[in-house]
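Practice set, problem 2.
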Amino acid sequence: MKVIATEKAPKALGPYSQAYVHNGILYTSGQIGINPETDAVAGDTIEAQAEQVCKNIGTILEEAGTTFDKVLKTTCFLSDMGDFAVFNEIYAKYFTSKPARSCVAVKTLPKNLLCEIEVIAVVEE
């Protein structure tokens, strides 16, 4: 197993890694809308946070040597399903290959954020 860690994505808020690669598959921890340059929440709207989440995922994919097109599955967490349509607009800009996906509403997310995404992707070794 190989740990994936980059300063271009937020540091873990707890005892976990940003991601692991095992047998050519990348597994990321859930990524939230924190700007790694400022260590602050990217904004208070679903648009700003979803955009930052996707950028954070992109840096982890890059660090692992893969891309959004190689994502097999995503799991998305929203604090309010009322944000579903707007979230989808941002998500669709990045996940153009339309990977398999689950999207659920949760009671709360870390730092009371509005969304979180985790991914499973192929890494060509």
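Problem 2, part (b): a different protein.
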Amino acid sequence: MLSQSNRKLLRQLSQKKYRDSLGLFIVEGEKMVSEAIASGLEVLFQVSSEDDGGEEVLRTFTQLSTPPPVLAVVRKREEVALTVPPLRGTFLALDSIRDPGNLGTIIRIADWFGIDGIYASADTVDQYNPKVVQSTMGSLFRVPILKTDLAGLCRSVASANGCVLGTFLDGRDLYRSGLGSESEAARLVVIGNESRGISPEVGKYVTGRILIPSYPPMREEGAESLNAAVATAVVLSEIRRRDSLPTGV
């Protein structure tokens, strides 16, 4: 039977202030718990549907539409292996991403495309939000994320001759733009807020303004924009395609 103190802890961890102060978060589902353990994170305790009273606990504390067979309380990593500014590699810079599902999907996309890490503005949704954790499908445990002053970060990368890419409606066609190189200085891909896009404070340090073109070009009707996570996937896919080409192509 789960102790009252552990029940209290599960209630607290639904709130960001307790996740921050205690350095803990909740992981749900067999795959996710296995991923957390495999990544070397410390698991304080698990609750299984096979435990005495476990099903009731899972129903009470789950953030999912259907209670999972297991959940765990996990300690956050103590250190994030990201420098400010980065010296080399390809990174995402998230400018006020507010939707948990978007952030979780972006983290998963970053993992798929082998991105070196994610920098995020202070007002980006908490990566340990239960909905974010679940939608990453384990990628949260592999992709380092650091909250930082995003405008300052972009300024530093640009000043060091790095490449700061961002999507704008008046940008240059993604497929005809220079996208930087991994062999040179750091490359940041800025993803803007779901409704407002990239903020002016961050935008002034973008060195490569790009546009994801719709098809056919210049049509009068159609979607106004892409979802932030979808835009991330499109841009990173083209970057990795370009990175795989022989030098000079």
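Answer key, part (b): The mean pLDDT is 93. The first strand starts at residue 24 and ends at 28.
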